[in-house]
Amino acid sequence: MTVTKNSLRDGWTLIVKRECATCVMVVPVITRLVRELPSLTVYTQDDPTFPEGVAAVNDLDLAASWHADIDTVPTLIFRANGVETARTVGWLRSEWRELTGIADLGAELPEFRPGCGSMSVDPDIVDKLRVRFAGEILHARQIDIASAEDEFEAMFSRGFTDGLPVVPPTPERVMRMLNGTSRAPQEVVAIAPPDLVELTVEKIAINAVMAGCLPEYLPWVIAAIEAICTDEFNMHGVLATTMPVGPVIVCNGPGTRAIGMNSGVNVLGQGNRANLTIGRAVQLIIRNVGGGRPGEVDRAAHGHPGKLGFCFAEDDLGSPFTSLAVARGFDASQNTVTVFTGEGPRCVVDQLAREPEQLAQTLAACLRTVHHPKLPFAFDAMLILGPEHARVFAQANWDRERVLQEINDRLQLPGAEIVRGAGGMAEGVQEAFKDATLPKFRPGGLLLVHAGGPAGLFSAIIGGWVNGSVGSDPVTKLVSA
Amino acid sequence: MTNRVILDPTSEKRMTSRDLLARPKTISGQTIGLLDISKARGDVFLNQLESRLTTAGAKVLRFRKPTFTKPAPVDLRHEIATKCTLVIEALAD
Fold this sequence. Notes:
The complex is a heterodimer of chains A (481) and B (93). Chain A is α+β, with helices and mostly antiparallel strands and 481 residues long.
């Protein structure tokens, strides 16, 4: 955010507060400067009578301090022709002398004393100041909550929630959230389905507040929104389908660790703020801005709990394989989100396989059942290998490509087994395919991710949705600050 | 407590539509709010209504906006919504 209303005059400006010991220490210096520098303006943040004997400008509302980006007091500034040309913070005698041109300034004082925090960056009030002085960047309609109305119930009654309480998106909280991105609040990030409305950074931030995000999560939410609001991902269809699927967001890169995402124990479960709130923010945005609500455009017959939000990080540091993002053409140093249309996860248990072929056989058998064991090709799937299963492959020097190849080799389905009526099941492919061999997954239709706790010879499968141009393709986007 | 403000998380492209409540079979026993918008002679109309509604067995509560030129304050709207089962607003003189 850029604040441009700097109203300081040309010449010298000094900003102080009485509460600051360094400001008090330099009072003799200030008194001299007032005498010798006619263009000096002194602002006082907390006490109009400070410094004594100086006609200081009252900055109790902190407007001058805010607009001049003061974070420390004392701060001494010099401006010429409306442009700041020099600034020093705290007391550093040599800099004050150089700035003022007074060679013996402060001879009686120590050479250096650090300053104190400016009141304009006091954590207790900075949110209010941000709204007061920069709040015009917010364009969203303001909604009054009655004084006798419970604000959390108010969010429910207005239809803004996913069924769980949300954090009320006050202007202060939204302004703080916007600090998480360098993008302008009114920048349109995407066209949000199903109502096909322009989705701004501000609206994303509002819903990110509601979801419980921290500002540093915001770039990840934005990237995920960019990814799902593509023709390839087809969020409209993902909403409208009667199948139980929603966006599954896989995060890669060093930023996942910087924001504390979970890629380990209980990776797909509860307990991690970043995982849960990033995924939830994406769903709230689609609900509130896009207008995609259950029972309206969202026609899922069953849905699944992950439609509240389904987001996790790949354990790419601990993985013996290249990561999902690298496999999709990105660098391991980049932060990315990959979105996949998925149902809820199911567990694959194999505690006995010690040879990679045995484990591949188990995984293939379980993957065959995705949506129906007799339905090939139409649905993708994500296989989340737990570390103990991944180790079985790593010890045999199988890389990502080998693992996927071996599994896919075991998922070439004989037409006679999967035609309609075979095995006593009506479901299946048309009779015309009875002599064909059909792959369970299309090329690239099985996605491999490494994540989970260190103990447990388990993996997880997330069944997909109708793939390709008919349905949805996975999409990967860079996360940018 | 002071009033609080939140920012609209929706697209603001359309209002949420809500179905009207079913029309009550009788007004007897209902708590009916009469909102005077502070327009001249609105009270004449509302006094007559109150008399009829009370005779018909309804409990009548009277409310008044500070001025007809501005929307009803949010606290007033909330009070009406929480105290009344029906509301009648006198829109003009």
